[in-house]
From TrEMBL:
Protein name: DUF3037 domain-containing protein
Alphabetized InterPro entries for the sequence: DUF3037
Pfam families: DUF3037
Length: 131
């Protein structure tokens, strides 16, 4: 059995009307220090978001979401936060916010392969179950 290592993750949520508290899970950010791994997966299903909030500016939401992978990768296009260490970037990404793009509180677990576990979390937390 492969060695299990500790990881942290948070669910990325779109909260179209913060005052209502309703949200749509759209992605996962996963950080695994032992594997020097910080990555995210984002899948915004427009029809689900429009069902929750027909007047939302989806293009603006997509623009804000598009910065998250840049920050995870440490890409300069992600702004000054991208220059921080992986751990600092993760903590910045999952810090509480009152904006329309939020994350859940961080959760911890054990895994052998962070990439495979990121996909597993997307299946469990973001994607709709098959009919």
């Amino acid at each position: 059995m492969p060695d299990l290592v500790q990881f942290d993750y948070a669910i990325i949520r779109v909260v179209p009307r913060v005052e209502r508290g309703e949200c749509l899970n759209v992605g996962i950010i996963l950080y695994c220090r032992a594997h020097h791994y910080l990555n995210c997966a984002i899948e915004l299903e427009r029809y689900r978001l429009l069902a929750l909030c027909p007047e939302i500016d989806i293009e603006a939401v997509e623009k804000h979401l598009s910065v998250i992978p840049l920050i995870c990768a440490g890409n300069n296009e992600g702004g000054p936060i991208s220059a921080l260490s992986q751990q600092e970037r993760f903590h910045w990404l999952v810090a509480p916010r009152s904006t329309s793009i939020q994350t859940s509180p961080p959760h911890s677990g054990l895994c052998a392969d962070p990439t495979a576990y990121l996909e597993h979390l997307m299946e469990m937390m973001v994607r709709l179950p098959p009919h």
